[in-house]
Amino acid sequence: STESNPIVATLFPGDGIGPEIAESVKQVFRAADVPIEWEEHYVGKEIDPRTQSFLTWESLESVRRNKVGLKGPMATPIGKGHRSLNLTLRKELNLYANVRPCYSLPGYKTRYDDVDLVTIRENTEGEYSGLEHQVVRGVVESIKIITRQASLRVAEYAFHYATAHGRARVSAIHKANIMQKTDGLFLKCCREVAEKYPEITYEEVVIDNCCMMLVKNPALFDVLVMPNLYGDIISDLCAGLIGGLGLTPSCNIGEGGIALAEAVHGSAPDIAGKNMANPTALLLSAVTMLRHLELHDKADRIQEAILKTIAEGKYRTGDLGGTSTTTEFTKAICDNL
Ligand code: NAD
């Protein structure tokens, strides 16, 4: 049984509020008897020459070996000569798709109560290829890379996700009227994949129009797939629709079946160490990890306990207008399990 043979998963508690909210996940998983054993890794204090980053080669190997992990927020040290931690993870683990389910939380009122969409962001190229340089003084250049291979891969994932999760529609978000070559190729790849999934409705929406539609009526959307920069912006916009970064889960899909779930928010240095952080985003991210492992019973139970706790409204953290501490909120979730 899985009880005697636990699944090993990598855990990066991260910086700032990271260790506090990671502790909350560990407690909830224990209370729900989730058969997972955490292998904890922290960001190093020195640059590892093998990764050119503060992330050690050993910690990356841990994710490659376990194929599944959970990551708290990491504060990228500012300075020269090293790669950003998140960029290192994306590149080294080839995390090509960032998936963010975004749904209204019952009992937590925002302007909208019928949001139920998923953003799928291409995560390896576009404007984030790191190819920036100065041409001459006063003129700089940034190169946007779009490849057929990466576009097909993320489009495939979007349609696979839609099929696996019973979703009806995939919208490709673009600006191909201006970026004719790059976004044009992205769309061409999406169309090719769409043809293989006739049961799923496929549409193309220009990014500016998409933004307007999202704030007017987010229920118009189902699954959205898009290149890197648009995905960065739209996914945060969608987090705002449901109440903010403390609530939004995300999961990164990498080649070879890797899934690294992570909270969307940063390390919140302003409230770190004060037992004030909302662990919901990391908890719901951990739930996406359980779904990836097909531990659906555990995932459902934990998700229901989280939503119930928020809906009851008795225990809420400060960002949701409550006065509960992280530990009180966590205990309430455990009691609701
Ligand atoms: P942030 O998300 O850390 O904080 C923005 C605001 O949201 C703050 O007021 C914070 O208190 C609040 N907040 C965020 N998460 C919360 C939670 N779980 N519960 C309650 N309140 C929460 O963004 P920032 O201040 O721009 O960045 C701080 C650091 O985090 C930087 O070093 C940045 O590089 C890093 N960062 C990391 C990630 C990541 O690892 N994925 C993402 C974004 C930022």
Automatic annotation (TrEMBL):
<dbReference type="InterPro" id="IPR019818">
    <property type="entry name" value="IsoCit/isopropylmalate_DH_CS"/>
</dbReference>
<keyword id="KW-0520">NAD</keyword>
<feature type="domain" description="Isopropylmalate dehydrogenase-like">
    <location>
        <begin position="7"/>
        <end position="333"/>
    </location>
</feature>
<protein>
    <recommendedName>
        <fullName>Isopropylmalate dehydrogenase-like domain-containing protein</fullName>
    </recommendedName>
</protein>
<dbReference type="Pfam" id="PF00180">
    <property type="entry name" value="Iso_dh"/>
</dbReference>
<dbReference type="InterPro" id="IPR004434">
    <property type="entry name" value="Isocitrate_DH_NAD"/>
</dbReference>
<dbReference type="InterPro" id="IPR024084">
    <property type="entry name" value="IsoPropMal-DH-like_dom"/>
</dbReference>
<comment type="similarity">
    <text>Belongs to the isocitrate and isopropylmalate dehydrogenases family.</text>
</comment>
<dbReference type="GO" id="GO:0006099">
    <property type="term" value="P:tricarboxylic acid cycle"/>
</dbReference>
<keyword id="KW-0460">Magnesium</keyword>
<dbReference type="GO" id="GO:0006102">
    <property type="term" value="P:isocitrate metabolic process"/>
</dbReference>
<keyword id="KW-0560">Oxidoreductase</keyword>
<keyword id="KW-0479">Metal-binding</keyword>
<dbReference type="GO" id="GO:0005739">
    <property type="term" value="C:mitochondrion"/>
</dbReference>
<dbReference type="GO" id="GO:0000287">
    <property type="term" value="F:magnesium ion binding"/>
</dbReference>
<dbReference type="GO" id="GO:0004449">
    <property type="term" value="F:isocitrate dehydrogenase (NAD+) activity"/>
</dbReference>
<dbReference type="GO" id="GO:0051287">
    <property type="term" value="F:NAD binding"/>
</dbReference>
<keyword id="KW-0809">Transit peptide</keyword>
